[in-house]
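Hi F.,

I've been meaning to write this up properly since the lab meeting, where we talked about keeping a consistent format for the predictions we share between groups. The idea is simple: the sequence comes first, exactly as it goes in, then the structure tokens exactly as they come out, then a line or two of notes. No screenshots and no reformatting. I'm using this chain as the first example so we have something concrete to point to.
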Amino acid sequence: MEHSGQGVNRATMEATLKKHCIPTLRAQGFRGAYPHLYRSDDSFVALITFQFFSSGGSFCINLGYADPARKNVTFKPETAVPKLRVNATRDQRRLGQPSGGGDHWFSYGLTSYGVFRGTPEPPEDIAEKCADLIMSEGEAWWRTKMTPGP
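Output, unedited:
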């Protein structure tokens, strides 16, 4: 797939994620329907949501979780695991955010108003980077949430 100076459209980016990122997540036990994925292990549920910018051109990946007591689920904690969503959790993380907080968006094309949000990258590179970040940064973050605090 060639990457032009204007990037690619959302449909192309989503197709690339489904081909190059989602299979890696499925191999790690994630289920659900894209863009909302979950993995349930011993009543701890890891959550992923791919969120596309409303004006196009970029997306972010939000991580959340449901602890066994569902204390982190703010809206309808009794929700069945397959229906849990990141936006219903209190403690969330934006994948790829700089240390100390902040925001990270993956840029793949122009917005509807003709500008880039960040420097666009080829969709295959973005999809690989997403899978790598989920397996490294995401897994490390979820592990800290599985460990009971003081």
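Notes:
The first strand starts at residue 36 and ends at 41.
The chain has a mean pLDDT of 92.

If this format works for you, I'll send the rest the same way.

G.
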